[in-house]
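Fold this sequence, please.
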Amino acid sequence: MLAESSLVNLVRLTTITYSIWMIWRMRNHARFQENISIYSTIQTVKGSIKMASNSSRKHMRNDIVDFSYLKVLYITTHCRKEISPIRVIWEFPHINWVKVNTDGTAKECPGFSTCVGVSHCTWGEYICSFSSFLGVEKSLYVEVMTTILAI
């Protein structure tokens, strides 16, 4: 089962809470012989869920399951803002220099780790590259080994 968004979790918790509260309320009204309409009770629960959900700042996942679930209850959907990409431009190294671009990563701490690198000369021509599986290591070890392999 997929993880649910924070907005759907809020709606579910609100639904359970207000339903229990309304069952208790209807029980008390029946005990004291006051008439209460089941239709008005359902509308009260729906209104409370809608009010609690629409006043929150929680977001839904951007998928059809969350969208359908929230639209059935007439809840305003709050989608996350899309993250715009950052443009990165590679620049040529200074004259008589070699530029080495590297990256290393460890999945966990410690975890499976790898490192890669590529080098270019002053005119941007490819010189060499490397990639290496470093085993189960910590991230500091990965960064140091990436630098050693680049040199």
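The chain has two domains: 6-72, 99-150. The mean pLDDT is 82.
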